[in-house]
Amino acid sequence: MEKEIIEERQGEIIVQESSAKNMKKLFLESYGCQMNFSDSEIVASILNNEGYNTTTQLEEADLILLNTCSIREKAEQTIRRRLSQFNTIKKRKPNLTIGVLGCMAERLKTKFLEEEHLVDLVVGPDAYRDLPHLLKDTEDGRNAINVILSKEETYADISPIRLGGNGVTAFVSITRGCDNMCTFCVVPFTRGRERSRDPHSILKECRELVQNEYKEITLLGQNVDSYLWYGGGAKKDFDKATDLQKATAVNFAQLLDLVATAYPNTRIRFSTSNPQDMHEEVLHVMAKHENICKYIHLPVQSGSTAVLQRMNRQHTREEYIELLDKIKRIVPDCAVSHDIISGFCGETEEEHEDTLSLMKYARYDFGYMFAYSERPGTPAHKKMKDDVPVEVKKRRLTEIIDLQQKLSLEKMQSYTKKVHEVLIEGTSKKKEDQWYGRISQNAVVVFPKTGNTSTGDFVKVLVTDCTSATLIGEIV
Ligand code: 5AD
Ligand code: SF4
Questions:
Q1: pLDDT in tens, 337-348
Q2: Is 188 in the pocket of ligand 2 (CB under 6 A)?
Q3: Does ligand 2 have an atom closer than 6 angstroms to the CB of 186?
């Protein structure tokens, strides 16, 4: 770090490390899931210690990092297009370093360096601690790569630098990786084995957020319900744990209870829940704590047991329905959302109809819907035929989206003419004089900025109207 003379007194020169002035600039862009956005905050923290400040101005960057997503082919295409845009900047600025992080880095490994000549640096999701060394290699003119996956890494001790947030809501990651091996999914290959983070470090990060006036924390993982802390290591190695480790292990329901109890004035959310791992105990903890938001993101992928089997999901349609009934019984006002894939290998018209009928039964609040996109290296790619024609996938997807829109409208209408507690997250994007925030069930509300209110306040809002995506109301 460079020193700067700040004062000359009686021949004595006072110097100060002028970190802010001489810091290098990092432009960090994230794609894909919330986990990637959360990881980018860890990367920003690691690189901050190396003298990098983040910038939103591409032109002033010394280092460009793209935190990438491989979940569908379209995501990868978008990232490739973005990388080629950087081409022009690199031509003008040869000292600029460009790196890819995340799932695409892990999936494509050295291919990235060979095919994408633009890229100097390739770093997988478990190798971010190595970034300082890797950057030294690039400074010396060498390409650098680390895509080693870990059974231990949770970045537990790293305090993330919150990027581009609203100062009110934040993510805290609790697990990494996924062991489920759904046949369509590339995540187990790009993010490795499932492991849980030390609960003490989770609570510490939550405490820091609360001290910094954050009002809502989302506990994050590919599969939060399978959270299991027994002293470190992969979930699959739990069998090898000592008796003491087993007796003192912390599961997700216990973790959720700990966090909600420790921070009763903070809203707690969690994502994502996997139907096969969601235990009743979690629902009781949700019902017990007012500050745990009444919302579960519960991907189903398909409403047909046969398709679920081909997807290697570990539950049937009937078991999923039982779980929905249990949620309604234990947490009656709970909102539920889904992920659904249309046109998975071998999907028949009847199987597609099963998905539509399940959606009608569930009366989902919301959903993320996708056409199946074959991913190289996944079990489905290796063993099954991607045989549903693109037009059929698209038509089925449209039917699913149209139905969801109707269900969402119904759900939003059911929230009207009622008063809800809303956390103000910021100014509405469309109207300067309106706030936007969320109700416990995660629906977005917009309402006029009346009274002495500001971002981060909890206010009571009477919902008077809605669209299928937004509630409209006024502070009461
Ligand atoms: N094709 C389409 N959608 C996929 N998802 C995961 N893999 C694929 C794929 N190959 C969807 C699933 C998952 C969500 C994060 O992305 O619905 O729940
Ligand atoms: Fe992928 Fe299935 Fe794991 Fe979700 S649970 S990340 S869909 S393998």
A1: 999 999 999 999
A2: yes
A3: no
pLDDT of residue 22: 59
Which ligand 1 atom minimizes the distance to the CA of 186? 7
% the chain with pLDDT above 70: 95
272 cis-preceded (ω within 30 degrees of 0): yes
The burial of 3, by beta-carbon neighbours within 10 Å (0-12 exposed, 13-18 middle, 19 or more buried), is given as: exposed
pLDDT of 165 reads: 84
Ligand nearest to the CA of 400: 1
Nearest CA to ligand 1 atom 2: 372
Identify which ligand lies nearest to the alpha carbon of 183.
Answer: 2
86, 337, 158, 325: which is closest to 176 by C-alpha? 158
Q: Which fold has domain 2-146?
A: Rossmann fold (3.40.50)
pTM over 0.85: yes
CA atoms within 13 A on the CB side of 50: 21
Q: In this model, does residue 20 exceed pLDDT 90?
A: no
According to DSSP, residue 224 is labeled G
Pick the CATH number of 418-475 from 2.40.50.140, 3.40.50.2300, 3.30.9.10, 3.30.499.10: 2.40.50.140
pLDDT of 90-110, one tens digit each? 888 888 999 999 999 999 998
Burial 103-114 (b: 16+ CB within 10 A, else e): bbbbbbeeebbe
pLDDT in tens, 437-456: 999 999 999 999 999 999 99
Q: Per residue in 360-403, pLDDT tens?
A: 999 999 999 999 999 999 999 999 999 999 999 999 999 999 99
CA distances from 340 to 84, 312, 336, 371, 389 (A): 32, 15, 13, 8, 18
Q: Judge if the beta carbon of residue 72 lies within 6 A of ligand 1.
A: yes
| 169-414: in CATH 3.80.30.20 | yes
Q: Ligand 2, residues 222, 272, 311: which to mutate, most atoms within 8 A of Cβ? A: 222
At position 65, the amino acid (one-letter code) is L
CA 179 – ligand 2 centroid, Å: 8
**Tokens 């829940």 -> residue:** 273
Cα–Cα distance measured from residue 232 to residue 237, given in angstroms and rounded to the nearest whole number: 10
Q: DSSP readout, 409-442?
A: HHHHHHHTTSEEEEEEEEE-SS-TTEEEEE-TT-
**Hey, where are the domains in the chain?**
2-146, 169-414, 418-475
Ligand closest to 177 (CA) is 2
